[in-house]
Amino acid sequence: MPVTARHDHTPYFTERLGANKGERVVIRLCTSLDVIQVRLKLLEYGEIAHKSTKEAKERWFEVKLPILSDRTRYAWNLTTRDDSLNLTMAGLHHTRKGYRSWYTYLAGHTSPEWIWSTVFYQIFPDRFCNGNDDLTVKTGEWIYNGRFVERIEWGSPITADGDIHGHYGGDLDGIRQKMSYLKELGVNGIWLNPIFKSPSNHRYDISDYRTVDPHLGENDIRVVLDGVFNHTGDECQLFVKAKESPESEERKMYTWKEKKEGELEYHAFFDVPTLPKIDYANEKTFDEFIDGKDSITRHWLRKGIDGWRLDVAHMIGANGTDEGNLEIHRRLRRAAKEEKKDSYVFGERFFDAEEALRGDGEDASMNYHGFGLPLMQWFARENGEFEPTKMEVGELMEILWESYHVLPPQIALSQYNLIDSHDVPRSLFRLKGNVDKLTSVLTVLFSFPGVPSLYYGTEIGLSQWRKGSMPWCRESMIWDEEKWNVGLQDRVKKLIRERKHQMSLQRGSLRFLLAEGDVLAFCREFNGVDGEYECSVCVTSRRGEEHKITLQMPIYGSLWSLKSVLECSWCSQNKYPDFRLFYENHWNRLWTYFKTCSGVALGQTQPQLETKAVQLYKDFLQLRTSEPTLHSAKCSEN
């Protein structure tokens, strides 16, 4: 059934985001229904109030929304001559949906909007590029956890024996030298795994938070850094002093327990002796790490970084637990924003992060739960532990939608989306080396709401040699171009370019068009302040063979009809809106483009659209697909 009413967060529907409590914001709804009344339902101090709207123009209704609380909830009621319907994020329904499905206006919240047009690239420093061999760790240079560290030859396979002791020699000089590669790829943001002084190759056991590891080089790159604020390394001077002196101030920064045979005398991250857990039960810990005048959080933002990725954000807390977790993140956010208003703070949360994403803590979370894990499970037909699963596309759509629509729009757009990382298996390995499937996954990654992130090497087909996550997913980057999958890399470049040039992909709302069989399709829609409409449609299939699908395309009241635009052979003045469509047939790497403008004839370069790939009907589009397609269209009402 075609959508018959629409409201979302984009500028023409919601005048502005982030207004303060006590202010009013104009919001609008459009509909193709023959309504006799449209009312706003507002959760007002615990009661549902009804407010009248006015018809701004044909089938467009508007009202001033009073911002009553930190999170103002509202819905719409549409009355026709023979029906009454409620519109929420869950769609049109006769019943009144629960508040989690209502629209949420987040008061006074400012997101770092630069991230919405950013494509991130995650770098595990030791494995990306060795730019200065003089900095490389030497075998036997020190003892860590009872063993000498070891230098590993670049390109050698990862081994369990060399998990934390084996150093490949990647450094900041190497990253600097490869900046031209990253710019050519199109990425414009970098998340670096820890770069602070540490005895291991992963550097999550930090010994000095204020010193860049001398084996990496100097620090003058503007990036998002990895904030390890749940635990330190056991060689960190804070912990050394705490262990040596029970009366020291540092002692209070860790949680101690009665020593028993075979057990640690302190709480540690998963009881790993080298990772003592930080205790936030006292202010000294906050002063050091979170919001003191020269806390670690503030220190590096002053140095010029653009934000923090918070390691195991869900575990940070007091007394050896996650006690006070959300308040810790509130304080960290305040400190970060005081130092740099548009800094980006996102947390590693593998699970449902809804409670942490209320607007007063992290800007976003790493979207494993609501994006990466279920998407990869569906495509791979097995879970992250490599166990077979019969997950259907309807279940995939359900968790993607559920995780998206419960968040305020600014936060949903800020979610850090990824398909693999240093903690989970490489995507190409999970897909059993199937590059076509990886292309499909990447198309969804760059089309979905949130901030897309590539794990180093994914774009050239870097994989791993055996099952598992850590350390197997941390192979060294391949710099021999003859070993690159150039076709995959070209596809990634095109997706990045499309992402960075389409407002609908950066800021648009989300609507699923199809979840059936082996096909998932959704669109991103954006209405600008001047009424300009832009729509991008992502279609992807895991079947691997050509087949037909039918999509219901968006039609609302006086908005454009896809058929009327695509079938016209010419455009008279003001008769048709401006329109453009990108279509890719993955089998022959064909990209087609055309645009209709007022008074300008259509080109003759798109016969494929008219016959082989796309069939057009009154309110839907039918196409044959076996691989991902991404369509983007714009129009302006005249």
From TrEMBL:
Alphabetical list of InterPro entries matching this protein: GH (IPR017853), GH13_cat_dom (IPR006047), Glyco_hydro_13_lg-like_dom (IPR004185)
Record-linked Pfam families: Alpha-amylase
CDD domains: AmyAc_CMD, E_set_CDase_PDE_N
A molecular function (GO) term: hydrolase activity, hydrolyzing O-glycosyl compounds
Domain Glycosyl hydrolase family 13 catalytic: 122-499
Keywords attached to this entry: Glycosidase, Hydrolase
Record GO biological process: carbohydrate metabolic process
Protein's name in the database: Neopullulanase
Lineage, uppermost ranks: Eukaryota, Amoebozoa, Evosea, Variosea, Cavosteliida
